Amino acid sequence: GENVEQHPSTLSVQEGDSAVIKCTYSDSASNYFPWYKQELGKRPQLIIDIRSNVGEKKDQRIAVTLNKTAKHFSLHITETQPEDSAVYFCAAKDSNYQLIWGAGTKLIIKP
Amino acid sequence: DGGITQSPKYLFRKEGQNVTLSCEQNLNHDAMYWYRQDPGQGLRLIYYSQIVNDFQKGDIAEGYSVSREKKESFPLTVTSAQKNPTAFYLCASSIGGLAAHTGELFFGEGSRLTVL
Fold first, then answer.
1. Rounded Cα gap, residues A63 and B103, in angstroms
2. pLDDT of residue B101
3. pLDDT, tens digit, for every residue of A31-86?
4. How many angstroms from the chain centroid is the CA of residue A42?
5. With b meaning 16 or more CB within 10 Å and e meaning fewer, what string describes B75-87?
6. CA B43 to chain centre
7. Which of B44 and B116 is assigned the larger pLDDT?
8. What's the rounded Cα separation, in Å, for the pair A30 and A32?
9. pLDDT of residue B2 exceeding 70
10. Which is higher by pLDDT, B33 or B39?
11. Candidate from A34, A93, A103 with C-beta closest to B42
């Protein structure tokens, strides 16, 4: 079955710098890749997603890139701000339509 | 105010007791899900339901049971058979089922269960 690995587990960046979180997946039939943000004590919320027929998608300061050949996708956050501090989860929808989740990345924005 | 409501937010249970976590949604979503979240791990699917009176096991269903008698409600019972029940439990819903083109999940705020 599908396996999703997420790196790094913790990422600390200076406010204003960029942050990149990477995920790899194993099921080549996976066709949908969302990213969720979970602030401390709050519910996960979808921040951006990408489908397998697209290589890149942007929404203001966040972007997601997908490399189907290498089977990896990444979340890019530019001009990081304190409110970006959270745990970020990637996921992949496999050939059984199940969402398989990465273990999460704790992003810390240093002032 | 539309959304998903989970209760209780915190729950303590003695070993050997069953406990039921409530999940209610007023989003008119067809599909509902229960996930378990443990530190350092991704979300793991316990059960899901795509329509009323139907539900399917997820990856870690052992020791759990669910019902879906109403579209709005999807309660989860953690039974005494669950060997390690202490965890954070998240309920979610989506407009369509698993194969729906838009897969966005709307989550509740979670229930933290601690077994004493």
1. 18
2. 60
3. 999 999 999 888 999 999 999 888 999 999 999 999 999 999 999 999 999 999 99
4. 18
5. bbebeeebeebeb
6. 11
7. B44
8. 6
9. no
10. B33
11. A103
Instruction: Calculate the dihedral angle through the C-alpha atoms of A37, A39, A43, A45, rounding to the nearest 10 degrees.
Output: -20
Bin A41: left if φ > 0, else alpha if -120 < ψ < 50, else beta.
Answer: left
pLDDT of residue B16: 87
SS3 content of chain B, % helix, strand, coil (to 5): 0, 50, 50
Helices (H), A2-108: none
Residue recorded with tokens 């069953």? B18
Chain A residues touching residue B36 (CB < 8 angstroms)? none
B25 in Cβ contact with B4 (< 8 Å): yes
Taking an 8 Å cut-off on Cβ atoms, the answer to whether A43 and B109 are in contact is: yes
B64: DSSP letter: E
Contacts of B71 (CB under 8 A, 6+ apart): B28, B30, B52
A70 phi-psi bin (left φ>0, alpha ψ -120 to 50, beta other)? alpha
Query: Using an 8 Å Cβ cutoff, are B67 and B22 in contact?
Result: no
Cβ separation A43–B45 shorter than 8 A: no
Residue B107 CA, distance from chain mean position:
10
CA B16 to chain A, closest CA, distance in angstroms equals 28
Place of tokens 């067809």: B30
